[in-house]
Fold this sequence. Notes:
GO terms for molecular function: deoxyribose-phosphate aldolase activity. Keywords: Cytoplasm, Lyase, Schiff base. By secondary structure, this protein is an alpha/beta fold. It has one domain (21-318): TIM Barrel (Alpha-Beta Barrel), CATH 3.20.20. Helices cover 46% and strands 10% of the residues. It contains 14 helices and eight strands. The protein has an eight-stranded parallel beta sheet with strand order 7-6-5-4-3-2-1-8. α8 links the parallel β3 and β4. The chain binds glyceraldehyde-3-phosphate.
Amino acid sequence: MQTTIQQDATHQLPQAVEPRNPGMELDLDWVQAVQANTSAIERRAKTLPGRRSVKKEHQAAWLLKAISLIDLTTLSGDDTEGRVKRLCAKAKQPVREELLETLGMSGLTTGAICVYHDMIETAVTALDGTGIPVAAVSTGFPAGLSPFHLRVEEIRQSVAAGAAEIDIVITRRHVLQGNWQALYDEMKAFREACGDAHVKAILATGELGTLRNVYKASLVCMMAGADFIKTSTGKESVNATLPVSLVMIRAIRDYYDRTGYRVGYKPAGGISKAKDALVYLSLIKDELGDRWLQPDLFRFGASSLLGDIERQLEHRVTGKYSAGHRHAIG
Ligand SMILES: O=C[C@H](O)COP(=O)(O)O
């Protein structure tokens, strides 16, 4: 179904989100019964880029919407306060004002910014008064192999430093060994340590072996109270993909059908092209519906996507690509 800019590409200011998924008891029968028809999923994923239902004349509005859904990220060993301050300035004003005016919009910001624990205070100060939340990666990101009590303590310290959202990493071993109780208990402890902060469970799907494992891990994390499930840290050799996204989105749908709780989705890692962002938005719209196209239920985890979206928007308005840009939206 096609929709107009006015109908659902409108920008909503980011808001601090209360935890909305209280979780449920671990239902092992449900987890064990999960099947995944891998070839059907691969087939459907292949056709997605060609089928995306965003009309060309609405693409600028959808790209602006995509900006409002980005967790603008820097997660590098050489991060500095200066880099994080620049990132926050970009989050506050992601595209130049004249361009935004030409496109008939004002007040656009990214959905959040995402940093390591050490950079939380810098980011919170830089974003003071904007309403843009700071997300922190926690629990021994990216591998999640530090002692359990330190991972829980890291969450507490990140919340105390002002992070409104915590991106945790799960122990991949629990999934690979089918130890669903251990995964549930771990996620539940992380959820509790977050208090009122919003918790996103990073599954590191590229390290989970099978799509069936991805599906099961998604369910277990949601049962334990994850507010979002997120594909990847950006550090695995395989990060966000369309087949993995389909599986996770369908797990979200199944969980909603069973419990009535909406869990958000965050594809992350390697999403750097505007045209890919449009495919993701279209996928969400088709599979979960418009409610999931708001910042409290969808985010892109991305460090370089914003740059490509900006270039595409500039091209639409001025007819020129900026230097080095060669990727046209299909
Ligand atoms: O969570 C966000 C990811 O680390 C970002 O990955 P990226 O640098 O490939 O965009």
